[in-house]
Amino acid sequence: MLERVSKQQQEDFAAVKASDEPLKMFISRSVKFFAKNQPITRLIADEVIAGDSELKKVFIATLPKRTAEMLPELIAAEQKAGRIKGDMNPKWLGFSLINMIITPFVAVPVREQVWQISHDEIASDAWAEHVYRIFTEGLCNEPDR
Question: What DSSP string describes 71-110?
Answer without folding.
Answer: HHHHHHHHHHTTSS-SSS-HHHHHHHHHHHHHHHHH-HHI
